[in-house]
């Protein structure tokens, strides 16, 4: 039962991460149409970098919780 809960938590986190990746790419692609191109590029890269960290954290957290249950 606890394994299912942790797997569900991982899937939800990865779905959130996929949406944040989408937002980061949309910010980067719309940067060319804006007057403040550099600011949008910095924000888009920040979104993507934070998202990579969030994905790594989610996977490590899932692995640790799986080891604790065994």
- Work out the radius of gyration: 16 Å
* Secondary structural class: mainly alpha
Morphology? elongated
Element order, helices and strands?
HH
Distance between the termini: 13 Å
Q: What is the helix fraction of residues, given as a range?
A: over 70%
Could you give a short account of the major beta sheet? none
Task: Give the strand content.
Answer: under 5%
Q: Using DSSP, what is the number of strands?
A: 0
Secondary structure: elements and pairs:
Blueprint lengths: L1 H29 L6 H33 L1
Helix pairs in contact: 1-2
Q: Can you walk through the features of this model?
A:
It is a single chain. The protein has 70 residues and is mainly α. 89% of the residues lie in helices and 0% in strands. It is built from two helices and no strands. It has helices spanning 2-30, 37-69. Helix 1 (2-30) packs antiparallel against helix 2. The mean pLDDT is 88.
Salient structural properties:
2 helices; 70 residues; mainly alpha
């Amino acid at each position: 039962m606890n394994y299912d809960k942790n797997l569900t938590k991982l899937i939800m986190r990865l779905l959130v991460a996929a949406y944040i990746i989408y937002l980061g790419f949309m910010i980067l692609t719309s940067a060319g149409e804006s007057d403040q191109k550099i600011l949008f590029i910095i924000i888009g890269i920040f979104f993507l970098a934070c998202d990579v960290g969030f994905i790594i954290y989610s996977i490590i957290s899932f692995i640790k919780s799986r080891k604790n249950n065994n």
